[in-house]
Design brief:
mainly beta
């Protein structure tokens, strides 16, 4: 099954790593959200079992959080960063719309 992970709001020149079941899926040393669209980056991962552990690490900010995601059909996971350096997660079975 396909897991689409989108890094969305709140990123500004961040050093970001996204791991799926402890395997690197996305690495960016300078990730910034595009203000017009609310989109920073995305990665698609083909998963063979469910649930999977998705970990987002922002080393310079001291943020690391893991979320278990059930992927029983194509699944979209949106991750945003708040101004308090906390991660928010949104799961959908429909693609996120970006302009």
């Amino acid at each position: 099954m396909l897991l689409h992970i989108a890094l969305q709001e709140g990123f500004h020149h961040d050093d970001v790593r996204v791991l799926v079941d402890a395997r690197e899926a996305l690495v960016s040393a300078d990730l910034t959200t595009r203000r017009q669209t609310g989109y920073a980056a995305a990665v698609e991962v083909d998963v063979t079992h469910t649930p999977v552990a998705v970990e987002v690490v922002l080393r310079k900010k001291g943020v690391a959080q893991t979320k278990w995601v059930l992927v029983d059909r194509p699944t979209y996971l949106g991750v945003s960063l708040t101004t308090e350096a906390a991660l928010t997660w949104k799961t959908s079975y429909e693609p996120f719309g970006y302009l």
